[in-house]
Amino acid sequence: MDLQYWLFCGSALIFSTFLAFCIILIACSQTYPIIHRSKKEKYFLDPASGKELEFSSISEKPTLSLSVVVPAYNEEERLPPMLDECLDFLEERSKNIKSFSYEIIIVSDGSKDSTVKKSLEYTKKYGSNKVRVLELEQNRGKGGAVRLGVFSTRGALVLFADADGASKFADLTKLESNIKELTKCDYIKESASIADKLAIVIGSRAHLEEEAVASRTFFRTILMYGFHFLVWLFAVKGIKDTQCGFKLFTRRAAEICFSSLHVERWAFDVELLYIAQTLKIPIGEIAINWTEIDGSKVTPVWSWIQMGIDLGLIWLRYTVGAWKIKELVKN
Fold first, then answer.
1. Which of 77, 188, 249, 301 could crosslink 254 through cysteines, CB 3.0-4.6 Å?
2. Do the Cβ atoms of 195 and 251 come closer than 8 Å?
3. Span 131-167, pLDDT tens digits
4. What are the residues facing 131 on neighbouring strands?
5. CB within 8 A of 121, min separation 6: which ones?
6. Architecture of the structural domain at 46-320
7. From edge to edge, which strands make up the β-sheet containing 131-136?
8. Considering the entire predicted model, what is its pTM?
9. Structural domain boundaries of the chain?
10. What is the DSSP letter of 74?
11. 3-class SS at 185?
């Protein structure tokens, strides 16, 4: 009798605590994300004229084939080699395919080093129609930086690529082939048509996992598998690598997913894919070449633990209705 009583009291206490936590979570959460953008962050510098020009909006019709968004926080060392590789590829393609056009938007996420200065050198060299720099006044986190970059694009397809250059940029062709299969459109020939389709293709490093396990400590391997399990349990099913910084969206899919994104830091990829799966947006996962580059801003143990907590909170907030996905009406 005493044991049953204490079990009942314990269960009631746990349930009451959880219920109170959920109520507080709902009361303190914004149902839909509030996206702050200062007046300065709506403009980019055109070095040729010396004028501040206004960025385009993703709600507008596309005027280019491809937009590449590169989030950068204190990346003065790693960014230039990445941009060189990226621009060599895109320039060569635009010379060979006259209907292909592109832009690169570098988003400096409150950088304290020379990231903006070095980025503007590329704007001067290639022109502001091809390379634009979005300078955020404060650090928002990678997810927040990517979102504001995406919202400033003009492309029918939108790619976000990490500034470290870990992904081989030529592997874009692999992602393009898969998105062509998903949408039944050739975006180089049918930019306007593919922009309104719904599809996402993500680069994947899952095929490199055995090599990664061999080079990591046992503890870091446990954390890695633990994180994969939490992603599967709380958020995204059927995707092996949610965190690779090489993801391709149709314009419409990017607008829908980023408009509902609440998480602005490391776990934002997971929420993006959770939103896409909830809305039944087709997602492809393609193996790409990837190389570890020194200088990562991720602290292995702490960042994974933090992301694990974020995953649980993402699931809980959506489950109890503290967060909801926006319904965007097609213009």
1. 249
2. yes
3. 999 999 999 999 999 999 999 999 999 999 999 888 8
4. 104
5. none
6. Alpha-Beta Complex (3.90)
7. 131-136, 102-109, 64-72, 155-161, 246-250, 200-204, 283-287
8. 0.88
9. 46-320
10. S
11. coil
